[in-house]
Design brief:
InterPro entries: YabA. By secondary structure, the protein is of the alpha+beta class. The chain is built from 6 helices and 4 strands; from the N terminus they run αααβαββαβα. It has a 4-stranded antiparallel β-sheet.
């Protein structure tokens, strides 16, 4: 009794896919020999078709292998470049974090304090200018402005003051300090540098110094007290009472 054949409807067992590699040179030579034999001798047509298909497959596999090698090299280069870029990004982020602290501390500074400090750096304080005898405040202010202009002219400081005003309450028996705000720190430094020329000024007892902070004024007061206690003459800061100046004569 003949054994029945397997039905064509039954699927064949699946085989695992194997890694396809490019044939070695020895196998390529054997395939080339077979192609030569098929052209020299009579071989069935299906054999020729199989050999031609194998040759085409071999060429395609060689092309694919070259492409895979090229892609692998480019992938390695991209990995190195990506790693370098990550390092650069981390360095930039750390720099930004380190720089963010000074900005945050500066943002907490009072803008009024900054403006006041900038104004102080271009200001001078003059002592020894007597008070005006006028009862009108505007006339006393104009008198102070004329006196300051005469002092700046004597010091050869070529600028017009931004503001001139007395500090403290009015006291007819003692002249208050006069604060002068100059246009720039350049004129302030020039006036302080040439303050010694006031020795030859027409009105004696006029002194000029830069505008100081409270800590600097405290240190100067302590230094004067120390010299006074040691029976040394203190540095002249405030002038004695003088009759009002005549700006036209300065």
């Amino acid at each position: 009794m003949d054994t029945p054949l397997r039905s064509s409807s039954v699927p064949a067992s699946r085989t695992k896919r194997r890694h396809v590699d490019v044939p070695s040179p020895e196998k390529q030579d054997e395939l080339t020999k077979l192609m030569g034999q098929s052209s020299a001798h009579e071989v069935p047509p299906y054999v020729k078709i199989i050999l031609e298909a194998l040759m085409d497959t071999r060429e395609q596999m060689e092309t694919i292998k070259k492409w895979c090698v090229k892609v692998s090299e480019e992938n390695s280069k991209l990995k190195v470049e990506n790693s370098n870029l990550r390092k650069i990004i981390e360095e930039k982020e750390s720099q930004l974090k380190s720089q963010s602290h000074p900005f945050s501390s500066q943002s907490s500074v009072d803008p009024f304090f900054v403006q006041h400090e900038l104004e102080r750096q271009r200001s001078i304080v003059i002592s020894g200018i007597p008070e005006s005898n006028s009862s009108a405040p505007i006339e006393r202010s104009y008198y102070d402005l004329q006196c300051v202009n005469s002092i700046l002219n004597h010091l050869d400081v070529e600028c017009i003051p931004c503001s001139v005003y007395r500090m403290g309450r009015y006291n007819a028996t003692r002249g208050r300090l006069v604060k002068v705000v100059l246009p720039t720190t350049k004129f302030q430094q020039l006036a302080v540098k040439r303050a010694s020329r006031l020795r030859s000024f027409s009105h004696k007892g006029v002194y000029l110094r830069p505008s100081l902070t409270k800590e600097e004024r405290d240190r100067m007061r302590d230094a004067r007290l120390a010299k006074r206690n040691s029976n040394q003459p203190p540095p002249a800061v405030a002038s004695p009472t003088h009759p009002p100046l005549n700006p036209s004569l300065l």
